[in-house]
Amino acid sequence: MKTLVWDVDDVLNDLMRAWFEQGWRAEHVGCAIGYADLRTNPPHEVLGVTRRSYLDSLDRFRQSEAGDALTPNAELLAWFEAHGAQFRHIALTVRPLETAPSAAAWVMRHFGRWIRVFAVVPSRPPVNAPEYDRDKGKLLRWLGRGDALIDDSETNLAQARAVGLTAFAWPQPWNEVRETKTELLERLLCWAEEESCRSLII
User: How far apart, in whole angstroms, are the C-alpha atoms of residue 63 and residue 43?
Assistant: First the structure.
């Protein structure tokens, strides 16, 4: 059985869109930029603010009631309902360590029927805590599990490829992926079937 490693923010949920529309634009009424204009992640330069200002705003949203009430990606949840049992699943996120408990609870609340493992890489050096892994690639190498990573970050996907995982890029404005979410999920199933057939032949 293949093991799929899922990014949490902007894959299992739409954190950036929710933060931008419910948080940032609510606080910056004159903002003329749309979500599709966020061509880089982090988007602070597009927004004309410092990286620190952006991160502070995002962290406030993560810890807010709106952040806790994020709805799961509907198409992805339907895919899990139909196909999730064919795989083992791991959730892997990069975020401040102090925000990890709420993220873990969110994952288990919405995807806990399938995802039984939650892992976090601190996005900033943790205070009064050991620093084990600085990126997803290092954690995946240590974990020694996973056949494919589904992520919106090309950096994370490159790290996954370097440790032997297949990489699937989740469409977002900042990665310019051409295929739709539906097409990606269909390709994920095709990949799994081909890999299964290949292992039987070998």
Answer: 20
Sign (positive or negative) of CA dihedral 191, 196, 199, 201: negative
Sheet (strand 148-151) strand order: 115-122, 88-95, 3-7, 148-151, 166-169
Residue 162 host element (H or E): helix 154-162
User: Tokens 């739409």 appear where?
Assistant: 14
In angstroms, rounded to a whole number, what is the distance separating the alpha carbons of residues 150 and 2? 13
Which CA distances in Å does 21 have to 43, 50, 89?
A: 14, 19, 30
User: What is the CATH code for 3-14+72-201?
Assistant: 3.40.50.1000
Residue 164 token pair: 């032997």
Does residue 131 carry a pLDDT above 90? no
Reported as a single tens digit per residue, the pLDDT across 24-68 is 998 888 888 999 999 999 999 999 999 999 999 999 999 999 999
Domain boundaries, the chain: 3-14+72-201, 15-68
Give first-to-last CA distance, the chain, whole Å: 16
How far, in Å, CA of 199 to CA of 3, rounded?
Answer: 15
Q: Report the SS3 class of residue 84.
A: helix
Query: How many CA atoms, within 13 angstroms, populate the side-chain half-sphere of residue 192?
Result: 21
Q: pTM for this structure?
A: 0.93
Which structure tokens are listed for 159?
């790290």
